[in-house]
Amino acid sequence: IVSGDSVHNMLVEKVAIMGFAQAIRFPDVDDGDPWIGQIRISEVLIDCVAGIYINGSLDVCYINKVHAWPFATKGLVGEVDADRYRTGAAFKIDDSADWTKFTDCFSYGYAYGFHLYDAQYVTLLGCGTDYPSTLGATTPNGIRIQSTSATTQIIGFQAAGQYFGINMSVSGSSGAVQVIGGTFWDLDASAILVDDGDLIVTGTKFWNLPQVIGINSGNAGKISIDSCIFDTISSAVFAEHADHDKSYWSIGKNNLYV
Hints:
Shape: globular
Number of strands: 24
Helix content: under 10%
Order of helices and strands: EEEEEEEEEEEEEEEEEEEEEEEE
Structural class: mainly beta
């Protein structure tokens, strides 16, 4: 499904889309003053190279109960691990978002579960990403957050089998990436990797991981962690960077280390 320019109030509901390069695409075509918004996508099954792509939304979009999974190849005779891998992003928002909401969405086997680029004020509620962890040579991201996507709320998120649960490199001082009430387990590297930007984590469980928070550069911003459980962490709960100002860390007293 590919929309034209300046599409508003469009509903995609209760369909299955399989076998294409992109399942659903809402582009913002630069021909003067175009924009899209108020898109609603609900109860959709996807198995394509890439899933949903929304570009240039200037009003709230709602994506609800979308399941991106290898429906077309799982269970085939002679199936191998690579049959469950998709090279694109299951959900991608690019160039503005204006309070877009993802609710109860899930991806399995995608290089990026959610990819937010220049997408301000996005909320993920009750979403999750999984990956065939036997494909250890790849580096899948549960959520990749980049550029001006600084104000992102991630509530009740679950990540397993990824390389990074969340990989963030964001700019701007107006907000922070907030992770509230999530669960991260069986990942190959960091649960959350911070290249740049502010991070707030509360009420989240981390278990069976090499490390929880990885600081990848001196550009990482202010980081606050509280009321979390760290269980069976093999390397480091917090992997610091030599150039990062440690006065920006706030590690609360209500964390539990098991």
